[in-house]
Design brief:
Strand order of the largest sheet: 6-14-13-7-12-8-11-10-9
Number of helices: 18
Strand content: 15-25%
Distance between the termini: 55 Å
Structural class: alpha/beta
Helix content: 40-55%
Number of strands: 14
Largest sheet: 9 strands, mixed
Radius of gyration: 46 Å
Length: 528
């Protein structure tokens, strides 16, 4: 059985994902937070008042008091919570609120909300918090919300009074049942005295005893009490509890950040970006990993300036050496071809999709080759975009410049920089004619680099690559693995000689720093 080892966490990929998601997530979070803030600010103000009641044991240490008091047993918090939502308590509390406050829109809204809570069995207006021990002895807090401080205070106190009344009525049920029992005995004694055979003296004694017991019940009724008693009345609230625009906006912003970043990671995992290990799995050599270039490259001059130093120069050196090595050992070998005076090798440079940086790779590689003594012809065969013309030609310089030459079906701009000439086909998209023109013009050079359209977008790229010495594929580090795999499958199906990959904009190449170069004199790409 093969055991898979632990996978290292790719921190650079995670940071790259965060950088990509940072702007949209922050913008969305800020917009939603602002909307939440303004919406919360328009909501009616809500105040909350809290009153408390005590849950006490149902007896006393004094026997005389215990004999003269009628109490109810203590209740668990769940029963008290159900009681405060019962119709008896709710209706009495609403009646106290209605009688204690003048008619107003706020009072009508409050009573409507209380009626809705009664029907739905919810506690949106009044909430109960219990703080009791295992013997159910402790305190309960009753909190009430309303649109004015006075209504909030009145509602909390009204529910306390309603709960105390309910608890007293619960204890009073014992006396009510006892009175009903004694009265039924009185009635039975009166109607059944003849059949019972009791004498007048005995009947009189029994009636007197029942009368005394009823009188005692009347006395006990005045002293009846429940297990709940008022502890603290509600005070007038000074601050609102709702709305809280700043808190709501902060919560929305934090939620958007959290779920936005989570969504970015999920989408990134589903997209499966191409990595160095993925390219190695394709059995095609990776010739270099070019780092992200600072700023926006509007011209080849900017690119050649940046490629003269640092990690970009080092990685372009790797691409150059790898490319020349692959050409020297493939299809009879470049060295053998040059020795026998045959055609100069021409390499098609392409990518799977648009925007992966193939054109900048062509320009940077051409400059690097020229800096090492090679004469390079750059052919802009991407007839739909002509990126090389935009890179090498200054915007102020027309394409029909005085030094423009036309030869072998190509428009030629010589010496864009020392050692690099630029060409573009004049035959449109005729692949066979473009290939013939490149072959005819390549005799004066050491290597031809052909910038083409992406292989998954334009089929002519595959047709042209079939007639050249090989294909160099540029893969952006943000491209999905599936797209690169599709491009490689297409080239394999067409039996195209794929020389290797260039992983572009790879932050992995920045991990180990740069083997720095000293400033040079003269040509910016001259090697000391």
């Amino acid at each position: 059985m093969t055991m898979n080892g632990p996978t290292d966490l790719n921190l650079s990929a995670l940071l790259a994902t965060l950088r990509r998601a940072a702007v949209p997530v922050l913008v969305v979070g800020a917009v939603l937070a602002a909307l939440t803030y303004f919406y919360s600010s328009t909501r009616p103000k809500v105040y909350q008042a809290t009153a408390s009641i005590a849950a006490l044991p149902g007896g006393s240490a004094n026997t005389l008091i215990n004999n003269t008091l009628v109490t109810a047993p203590v209740l668990p918090p769940s029963v008290v919570a159900r009681a405060i939502r019962s119709p008896e308590v709710m209706q009495r509390a609403v009646a106290l609120v209605t009688s204690g406050a003048a008619d107003s829109p706020q009072r009508r809204t409050l009573t409507t909300q209380l009626d809705r809570d009664l029907q739905d069995g919810t506690s949106n207006v009044v909430t109960l918090t219990a703080d009791v021990n295992t013997d159910f002895i402790g305190a309960y807090e009753i909190s009430a919300k309303a649109m004015t401080p006075q209504l909030a205070q009145l509602t909390a106190n009204s529910f306390v009074n309603a709960m105390l009344t309910w608890d007293k009525q619960r204890a009073l049920q014992t006396i009510i049942r006892a009175r009903e029992n004694l009265r039924s005995q009185q009635a039975a004694l009166t109607t059944g005295s003849v059949r019972s055979g009791l004498d007048t003296q005995t009947l009189t004694a029994l009636r007197v005893d029942l009368t005394q017991k009823l009188q005692q019940l009347n006395v006990l009724e005045q002293t009846v009490s429940g297990t709940l008693s008022g502890l603290a009345s509600a005070t007038l609230p000074l601050r609102t509890v709702e709305p809280k625009p700043a808190r709501n906006a902060a919560l929305v912003f934090a939620a958007v950040i959290f779920f936005g970043v989570l969504l970015a990671f999920v989408l990134d995992a589903l997209r499966r970006r191409v990595q160095l290990d993925d390219l190695h799995e394709f059995s095609v050599p990776v010739m270099g990993m070019l780092p992200p270039v600072r700023g926006r490259l509007d011209s080849a001059q900017q690119l050649t300036s940046q490629s003269s130093q640092g990690i970009l120069r080092e990685q372009l050196d790797f691409v150059r050496v790898g490319l020349l090595s692959a050409l020297a050992h493939g299809r009879g070998g470049l060295l053998s071809a040059l020795a026998h005076g045959t055609h100069v090798p021409a390499v098609v440079v392409s990518s799977a999709l648009i925007g992966e940086g193939k054109s900048t790779v062509v320009a940077g590689l051409a400059a690097n080759l020229a800096a090492h003594g090679q004469r390079v012809l750059v052919v802009d065969a991407d007839v739909f975009r002509f990126q090389q013309l935009q890179l090498w030609m200054p915007r102020s310089q027309p394409r029909s410049a005085p030094d423009l030459q036309t030869a072998e079906g190509l428009q030629l701009w010589p010496q864009m920089i020392p050692g690099v000439d630029l060409a573009a086909p004049v035959t449109g998209s005729d692949v066979a004619q473009i290939a013939a023109s490149i072959r005819a013009a390549s005799r004066q050079y050491d290597l031809v680099l052909i910038d083409t359209a992406p292989v998954l977008k334009v089929a002519d790229t595959l047709a042209l690559a079939m007639q050249m010495e090989g294909l160099l594929l540029v893969a952006d580090s943000e491209t999905s693995r599936g797209q690169v795999q599709r491009a490689l499958q297409e080239t394999t199906r067409m039996k195209i000689n794929v020389l290797g990959f260039v992983l572009n904009r790879s932050r992995e190449s920045l991990r180990h720093g740069s083997y720095a170069y000293n400033p040079v004199q003269g040509n910016v790409l001259d090697v000391p």
